[in-house]
Amino acid sequence: MKNHLGMNDVFLQRFCSPKLRESRVGEFFKDITDKGLFEQIQGRKQIHLEIGCGHGHWLTQYACENPKQVFVGIDLNTKRIEKALSKARKHSTENLFFFKAEAWEFIRLMPSNFMIGNIFIMFPDPWPKKKHHKRRLIQDSFLDLLAEQSSSHSLLFFRTDDLAYFKWSKEKVSTSRNWRLIEKKIPFKHFSYFQDLLPCHQSLTASVKNNFCL
Ligand SMILES: C[S@@+](CC[C@H](N)C(=O)[O-])C[C@H]1O[C@@H](n2cnc3c(N)ncnc32)[C@H](O)[C@@H]1O
Fold first, then answer.
1. pLDDT digits (tens, 9 = 90+) for 142-152
2. N or C: which end of the chain has fewer CB within 10 A?
């Protein structure tokens, strides 16, 4: 059984209060700080974030090719994160971390000495039924939250096989107070797990607006 955050009961029994989940996220950032790998941007440590990373297929390859940057993959699904962690261990990548977390909660709870560099969202759940559109990740308020935790150079890379969700996201980004669509190819040489399974996809890239305001 899952709650509104899509987290299963076992997880919620262990981390039943927002306070416990907050300290869990704090611990995660404390642990990764010890690695001392971070680029400082505007006085904060930078992570590049993949939201809904699944098995970590794509992020593992990408992190191996970019050893000077730090990558974090988050996903709601415990089993997928376990697989991603074992993949990262096999590659012995120092700059790659996976963490079970819900995107809104994780980003809200990021400590203030960290910031997000680039954001990757690939093949997010499209929630096709109208009554479920509110569950889609791309929402005005989510774009605002992402911008709040991002640097002025951050880029958002989004890819989906669902045309309706693509149109929805393009509309949200183009009317966002904090993001603008730009012509820039997604730097993906490798396929994500879902991209390998699906016949086609659409992509968009956005940059943070300089006149950032919330
Ligand atoms: C269709 S899969 C795509 C996985 C991967 N990006 C790929 O392309 O192979 C979508 C993933 O997003 C995760 N997910 C959905 N909503 C999420 C949320 N709010 N926070 C974190 N992960 C989420 C799901 O658990 C699932 O693993």
1. 999 999 999 99
2. N
Q: How many angstroms separate the alpha carbon of residue 137 from the centre of ligand 1? A: 10
Within-domain flag for 202:
yes
Query: At 164, which CATH number?
Result: 3.40.50.150
Quick check: 164 pLDDT over 50?
Answer: yes
Residue type at position 101: A
Structural domain that includes position 193: 9-208
How far apart (Å, rounded) are the C-alpha atoms in residues 176 and 181?
10
Number of domains in the chain: 1
Q: Is 131 part of a structural domain of the chain?
A: yes
Q: Tokens 């642990």: give the residue.
A: 31
The answer to whether residues 49 and 104 touch, using CB atoms and an 8 Å cutoff, is: no
pLDDT score at 9: 65
Q: Global pTM?
A: 0.91
Per annotation, catalytic residue among 9, 125, 144, 161: 125
Nearest CA to ligand 1 atom 3: 123
Does residue 127 fall inside a structural domain? yes
How much is the pLDDT for 42?
A: 78
Residue 49 Cα to ligand 1 middle (Å): 13
Residue 76 Cβ < 6 Å to ligand 1: yes
For residues 18-32, average pLDDT = 91
* Among 182, 171, 169, 170, residue whose Cα is nearest residue 208: 182
Phi, psi (5° rounding) for residue 75? -155, 150
The question of whether 125 is a catalytic residue gets the answer yes
What separation in Å is there between the alpha carbon of 152 and the centre of ligand 1?
26
